[in-house]
Amino acid sequence: MDINSFTIVSTRAAIAEKRFTATRLVEDFYEKIKAEDGEVHAWLTLCQERALAQARRVDDLAAKGDPLPPLAGVPVGIKDVMVTKDVRTTAGSKVLENFVPPYDCTAVARLEAAGAIVLGKTNCDEFAMGSSNENSAYGPVRNPRDKSRVPGGSSGGSAAAVAAGTAVAALGSDTGGSIRQPASFCGIVGLMPSYGRVSRYGLIAFASSLDHIGPLTRTVKDAAILLRVIAGRDPLDSTSADVPVPNYEEEMGKPVKGLRLGVPKEYFSEGLDAEVRAAVESAIHRLGAGGAEIVPISLPHTAYAIPAYYVIATAEASANLARYDGVRYGYRSPKTRTLSEMYRNSRDQGFGAEVKRRIMLGTYALSAGYYDAYYLKAQKVRTLLARDFDQAFQKVDAIVTPTAPTAAFKLGEKTDDPLAMYLADIYTVTADLAGVPGISVPCGQTQSGLPIGLQILGRHFDEGTVLRVAQAVEDSMSRA
Ligand code: GLN
């Protein structure tokens, strides 16, 4: 069987029709990972026993002829910032090198309850901080489409696994773009749901008011199926919303005719690569030809999004990462004499350079005397950005933009210049700050064959419209 082109839909169908067993499928995927993942390095930890036990459960169901759950037999990867019971979870950090969690993240538990098979944990930037996956303590991930280039970050391992065909789908997390940007760089679909749509229980916190869990898949339909499984209120996360979860597959089946799509001028200015612009404009043109009404709009506070994001995200990170003190769990520096030396050395030796930079930035922004000037100011900007979206969504049903200003860049290209790296998030951080959903869907490629993503943003809890537009883009690719 050619497992390279498997989707959620085709995997489930093949298992239901008994063309092969889930057990056989899992074995094939592990073989592929062993043969092909060396250079890409998308996987950090594999969990064969857990996967095979789950595969047997699925095979038992199929043998009995029972109706199969929506993800029956689908091999998935989980970004290593989601905790998994009895399976090492590192967050890409040396601090958690030997951490074996005692419970499962809700999103992971829901995937398994729906029949998915967790193959293992995928590589990521340390504590999800990064745009290139070069901040992992376990070494970088390479883009399967061009191994001299980054896969994007911070969910680079999840995106690369799906793009390389070592998983059919994966979960990632998005705080400032970390699902959509790697999806764009690797040529796959990445969906960030609305804030509150998916429980964050068991997601190792980076910036709690910005963190989102969502799917990385090969098709828009797969993203819709996966989202429906993980979405919905969870009593274990008080910020998960009690809002009905629609049947996304039905919503996305509708044509785009009559939809109003906003094109914000601020997302097409200086810094946007010419080939990316051309591909995105051509995709928007095809949406117009399909009957959508294309409406020029403005999101006037966009220029302040990056600074506001890097103040708020680092402030929250500095508080969230205070728990890694060498006492309760995680890395403890050996041979220290006093308690404060133990704290200091554990954190100094355990955290990488980018994490330290952010803890320092965030601690500074929250300190007495600077709080009003930086943190409070950033929160005000966040409100203005959210208002920009509210006003835009009175006029349009969705917003279309590039996902990232460039296609995948070379490894090492931006590592010496953190500010240049931060600008890779310029089109994605706004949606995280506003809490609205967004997707990246492949819309073309550069002359040299690098994938380009189109971003679609929607109203709060309206992932349905976002998926509907994404499906139209995917459909239009065959005509591009
Ligand atoms: N690249 C952004 C950052 O470094 C976003 C990370 C994310 O979404 N987790 O903060």
How many strand elements?
11
Sheet with the most strands: spatial strand order: 1-3-2-4-6-5-10-11-9-7-8
Based on secondary structure, the structural category is: alpha/beta
Q: Flag low-confidence runs.
A: none
User: How large a portion of the residues is in β-strands, by DSSP E?
Assistant: 5-15%
Give the integer mean of the pLDDT values. Answer: 96
Q: Please state the overall shape, judged from the principal axes of the Cα atoms.
A: globular
SSE order in H/E notation? HHEHEHEHEHEEHHEHEHHHHEHHEEH
Main β-sheet, in a few words? 11 strands, mixed
- Tally of DSSP helical segments: 16
Q: C-alpha Rg, in Å?
A: 21 Å
Report how far apart the termini are: 30 Å
Can you list the ligands bound to this structure? glutamine
